[in-house]
Amino acid sequence: MSPAILALWNDYPATMAEEYEAWHTFEHVPERLTVPGMRAARRYVSAAGKESYFTLYELESLAVIEQPSYLDLVRNPTPWSQKMRQHFSSVLRIPGEIAVKAGSGIGGATLVQAYSVESGKAHASIPTMEEILRQLMTQTRITGFQVVLAEPNQVYEVFEQDEATDPDTVNVVIIAEGTSVEALSVMQAALTRQIEHRLEPRKRLRSDLFKLLISYRGEDFPSHRSEIDTNTMWHSGDHT
Fold it and tell me: Is 74 strand, coil or helix?
């Protein structure tokens, strides 16, 4: 089985940003990391100053999100999670296998691009995309990258997908990390031109710069959701 990721994009109302931060930080991601095979997670916010978020989970394989322990989290949310789910918008969820990956460490920012690409072209373009991204690493523009391939239109029980794509395509997700938003913004336009010239995508699903908010290691969390302490400052204060 190949290493995989679970990528999620979503917007959230600015009026609830404080509660969203608390819930996502202290309950939502920690719950997910109790699932066996969930290795790590990172959460980002849009560098454009809006309430758009990107969450990236590292998986041992795609089988991780088919396990009963993961499906239990999806199908039996806590009261807090049930409340927060009502306010999500612009949701895009892509589980996929890592085709190529390089670099080390976690940068302070990331450029994330997602495309719908004809299946044969997507697979054939992997070596060229790797070459482009490795060249940027030698120029110190990026600290690491990964290219992910995913089946289109994967059903998610919680939210309807924001973008429908053609059945004869695959989703290609390109994640390029850097030390800062400024460092990545220097090469964003050039990288986008090169990647889109090679992939000839039918649709651009996402292309955004994000700032890192928090990084988690799966080994730091218990083995069952019941052991997650959600008695945060939010619950103990006046925010009800």
Answer: helix
Closest CA relative to residue 32, chosen from 1, 77, 2, 90: 77
Q: Could you tell me the domains of the chain?
A: 4-236 (3.30.70.100)
Residue 228 pLDDT > 90, yes or no?
Answer: no
Q: What is the largest CA-CA distance in the chain?
A: 55
Instruction: Find the range with the poorest average confidence among 9-18, 92-101, 126-135, 157-166.
Output: 157-166
Would you say residue 236 has pLDDT above 50? Answer: no
Confidence of residue 50 (pLDDT cuts 50, 70, 90): confident
pLDDT at residue 205, rounded to an integer: 96
Query: Structure tokens of 198?
Result: 């090679």
Instruction: State the Cα–Cα distance between residues 216 and 228, nearest whole angstrom.
Output: 14
HSE of 42 in the Cβ direction (CA atoms, 13 Å)?
A: 19
Return the pLDDT at 101: 97
Strands (DSSP E) found in the chain: 4-11, 38-46, 52-59, 89-103, 109-118, 144-150, 169-178, 203-217
Mean pLDDT of 54-70: 97
**Residue 65 contacts residue 155 (beta carbons within 8 Å):** no
Buried b (16+ CB within 10 A) or exposed e, 83-111: ebeeebeebbbbbbbbbeeebeeebebbb
What is the C-alpha to C-alpha distance for residues 210 and 13, in angstroms, rounded to an integer?
18
